[in-house]
Target: soluble epoxide hydrolase
Amino acid sequence: MVSCRVPSAFCVTLFVSLLAYYANKHIKQLKTQPSSLTTTNYSSTTTTTMEEIRHRTVHVNGIDMHVAEKGEEGAPVILFIHGFPELWYSWRHQIEALSALGYRAVAPDLRGYGDTEAPATAAEYTCLHVVGDLVALLDAVAPDQDKVFVVGHDWGAWIAWYLCQFRPDRVKALVNMSVLFHPRNPKWKPLETMKAFYGPDYYICRFQEPGEIEDEFARIGTETILKEFYSYRNPGPLFLPKCKGFGHSPDTQITLPSWLTEEEFNYFYTKYEKNGFTPGINYYRNINKNWELTAPWTGSKIKVPVKFIVGDQDLTYNSAGAKDHINKGGFKREVPFLEEVVVMEGVAHFLNQEKPDEINKHIYDFFQKF
Model:
């Protein structure tokens, strides 16, 4: 997850926020338009089954990457980028619905996640490594398409912003969720700022010491940790005091959220029980390194068409200053081709799973313009 005002996944940057609800729309015609449907069905359960999703392993950027995909060859590609603690499976509803609506959905496990290879050292999880993986993946699975559509959430949203900064020539349009664009501030290192503002118990600060948070998670158990993250609806910042976990007693029963069945949860659980949390946490351990590596992009803006979606119960939306930026247009200044900001009422962090049909419609309606 990313939370507050400084970059991270289950987190947003300390100095950035959402834009005004209404922005001028830059509508373009899509060269290869998906099939027109008289009755558009955004449900992920009526036309396809999970068994029809294709799985393969592609060697990209020096690692073996697992990718799930659905849709006809030659159809416009949508690249789905997941967050923490998630997997390609977080996009199961979107893969089914958007492929049925004429797109080819491509959803990888990012490096270190699920069935994708996990490099051994934290230094191999910088934004340059991950964006490099995705560019190489597009070269491998969609060599006929110079540009693709992109959808990101949580850490995946942050990576999507980097992709648009580094390689805007590869992105046709972007739908990003939960984590808005955070312009690099050359005066403040992110981790030091977070620690000064929130203290050492802030979860991103707790993630920094190799092995420490993993040992605590191991004592609590993979099942409980995942349930804690998935059921988290507190719009305030997330703190993990040492040896106190999420603040519950060890006997507390954590109920799955209504949007996640036991069967679906077991898929996540099986992968994390096997692989552990370290690879995903290594993304957090590169927050300062990413700040250093992206110095050449200081002041750069996101210059692809964008739609941004966030839940009003998401901790990212409720971080200090975010709502002011909605009204004052700060986000629009940094993302000049931002066309729309959608704030979903009563929805928390994992919005693409909590409200899949609505998210499917938002994605489809936006991408149909191009």
